[in-house]
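Q: Could you predict the 3D structure of Acyl-CoA carboxylase epsilon subunit?
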Amino acid sequence: MSAEEPLFRVVRGVPTAEELAALVGALTLRSRSAGTPAPAARSSWAHSARPVGAAPAPGRGAWRTSGLPR
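A: Sure. Here are the predicted structure tokens for Acyl-CoA carboxylase epsilon subunit:
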């Protein structure tokens, strides 16, 4: 494809400049999101560093369980 060839062309109707701008924006956004890889899963190491949920109950052994992954 050469630089002079259009990326797309209108085959029916006469779109306004705003309609063409919206179309180009939508196509650009869709092509960018299609090329984006899925986010990687968090490792067990990172997950254990960010505990979620209720804190360990105070009492015997609480200091030990506070450092363990949930």
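Q: Anything worth pointing out?
A: The mean pLDDT is 75.
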